[in-house]
Amino acid sequence: MSASPKPDEGCELCRTDGGEVLWQDEFLRVVLVDEPGFPGFSRVILADHFAEMTDLDGGQRQRLLEAVWHVERAMRATLAPAKINLASLGNQVPHLHWHIIPRWRDDSHFPASVWAAPRPSASGPGAGALAALGALVRYRAAIRAAFATDRGR
Q: Between these two residues, 133 and 44, which has the higher pLDDT value?
């Protein structure tokens, strides 16, 4: 693997966990984000301060994408969203991380991005998101099991 850059003290994802840590090792962590209306919204965050996918060598890239895959698989199995959005933006925080976002047809923003304005007719979490709130215990357990079984690889 290529040399890892040092943490950046000005970077929010270097200074903080970025959410409830569900699993971590020396390379990455999986966190559950407190995002009202989108239960299960998670991030896979690299431990070191890489800014872009092309900063990673092949092994690092494969580990990162396998982790994203494990999170998506656990999310589908436990939360049953209509769709899952994957995003790696980093415009505001240039520290490589992936958003894994469960979506329901009745969520406040569907079919637009979760960062768009909510639909005018939206009046709170829909039935899909409310059902997912009850499944978060199973989701947490599924994440831990997925990474424990094969150590995230």
A: 44
